[in-house]
Amino acid sequence: MYPRTAPHTHGLLTASDGQSISWEEAGTPDGVPAVYLHGGPGGGLGQGGYVTKFDPDRYRIIGLDQRGCGRSVPLAHDPAHDLDANTTPRLIADLEELRTHLGIAAWVVNGVSWGSTLAIAYAQAHPDRTLGIVLFAVTTTSRAEVDWITEGVGRVFPEEWERYAAFAASHDPAYRRRESRLVEAYARLLRDPATREDASQAWARWEDVHVSIGAGGFQPDPRWADDDYRHAFTVLTSHYWAHDGFTVPPLLEQMDRIAHIPAALIHGRRDISGPVHTAWELHRRWPASRLVIDEGDGHGGDGMVAEWVRANDQLAARWASDRRK
């Protein structure tokens, strides 16, 4: 990885609907523009470790906290936040408003986990603004993927899934175990201030469980101790997953729009939360893509990170070569 460099510019962009989006910029102003899309939904930029995946001498690195999380305001669980207006098309509009605000004609798009869904959706909407794509822990947030991560993985962790489902069954009268969608029950419980705290704790535990195989065992994420982080993350994740990522039609059905855009798809073989099948199907429908499967990693890991850095280096070299022509 490259050295961690602090942002040299940052701001709070007021979007056209009045929500405020926090953004920051690092690297060289004359470099190839690149935007980083974090996971979750609702994960935020955190401590800014994403910048280490880009050569700061070759990239103009842009990061943003997607609306409703991180340093963007208001947060998703704040009564002032219009959660119904928080959708994938709206996130794409935010990206376009930020791109225009920064005077960027086109950029390389990096997406991690949920961010890879957003990256694909953005590129499909604006292929002329996308120089290249790097996806890490690849998802498309289809209904099948959402049902797997909230229901199907229970076959691997049956005792933990029973605990996860039992909370919803005891707090949401509309939920019927294995008859209705568990994710929809949690979306309702997490919108309600009366049940949000306990529901967020139950959701957070399930998150730690289903990533545990590729992470070397169960390890509670220390970020959950921050109530604002946990509430924003769980409210946004359940909201997006309950609506199958707001991607209609499904992203896999629209791959012809970006078939020509160079891309690296990086995934871990041991990713139980998001099996490699999704990355494989994307690659099959994406002629300009390169699929890298790390045999030892899960939903992230050192081997995958090395490939992430390598993919960005390759795109920077390609951009420099094109400029010389």
UniProtKB/TrEMBL annotation:
GO terms for biological process: proteolysis. It comes from Ruania alkalisoli. Pfam families: Abhydrolase_1. Residues 35-299 form the AB hydrolase-1 domain. PANTHER family: PROLINE IMINOPEPTIDASE. Its EC number is 3.4.11.5. It catalyses: Release of N-terminal proline from a peptide. This is Proline iminopeptidase. Keywords: Aminopeptidase, Cytoplasm, Hydrolase, Protease. GO terms for cellular component: cytoplasm.
